[in-house]
Amino acid sequence: MINLLLPSLFPKFDDRNSWLIYAELIVALSEAALFLTVFGNREPKKPYDQLRDFVVVFLANAFSFGIGEVLWIILEY
What we know:
Helix content: over 70%
Structural class: mainly alpha
Oligomer: single chain
Largest sheet: none
C-alpha cells in the first residue's frame, strides 16, 4: 500500500527485509494514528484502555503480516 499510494515520500529499498520492517512500522503507526483520531476523544474506563487498544491494533497488523508472509512463501515455491 505504501508503494502504491505514497511512492515519492518513502525511500526505495533493495533488500526485502529492510523494506518489510520499514513498511510494517509505517503501517502500524498509521493505523494507531487513525485509531487515535477516531476514538481518542472518548474517556477511557480504565487507565490502560487506550494502551490495550493500541496493542490490539498492533497484534492484528502483525497477524495479518504473518498470514501474508506464509502465503508469500507458499506461492513463491
